[in-house]
Amino acid sequence: MPATPAWPPKSAPRLFVETALSQDAVVALDGPQAHYLARVMRVAPGDVVILCDDVTGEWAARVTEAGKRDVVVTCEALLRSREQVPDFTLCAALLKKDRFDLVLEKACELGVRHIQPVLTRRCVADKLNLERARAVLVEAAEQCARTALPSIAAPVKLDVLLKEWDAARHLFFADENGGDSTAAQFAAHRGPAAILTGPEGGFDEAERAAIRALPQAHAITLGPRILRGETAAIAGTALWMGTVGDWQD
Prior knowledge:
Mean pLDDT: 94
CATH topology of the largest domain: Alpha/beta knot
Helix content: 25-40%
Low-confidence stretches: none
Structural class: alpha/beta
Distance between the termini: 37 Å
């Protein structure tokens, strides 16, 4: 007797939608999402797609109409409630577009809750297309099966970031000149946290002094080698998640 196929199929397309989802909710998809489903995935009535709304969680939905310009689906079952992600913010100095795209993608995969781009004196880039950045995060979340989208803010200058810092949040400063043991600092300062990583040319001495003067700042080392900005952001996030984040679960 053949095995019962998994439901929903693991190969089912997965999309984030802005519509609030609920049992039996009917969702009409158009634009790029409809094109992806109809032309790329070639869905037909009766097929299953996975929808997430960043509010309730992940739903299995059945295709009821599949046209060239729109696809209509009906929610049938809640598969997972929206995940609880650690209260962790990545404060990454703005990098060139392709490198910062990599930071956004991997930060999403690793479980970051919020991303705060930072402008420092040695930043090569000084602008960020927020709409495009959010699209990168959505695509990454769809690929890695997140049910909660990371939020992202507009870039802020370093001095403003430090001036407005939340007194209840620890700031782990990845200082290329050296710092304390990363794992020990993470373990000793649990709770709402953020990690600050630098640009291509690193922080200058005045910036480094200003960061270290913040009462909530803890200078850490990311090893004996000089890391690229994107590598430092990804490595620091992974270390925090593996030490005190939700990888422990």
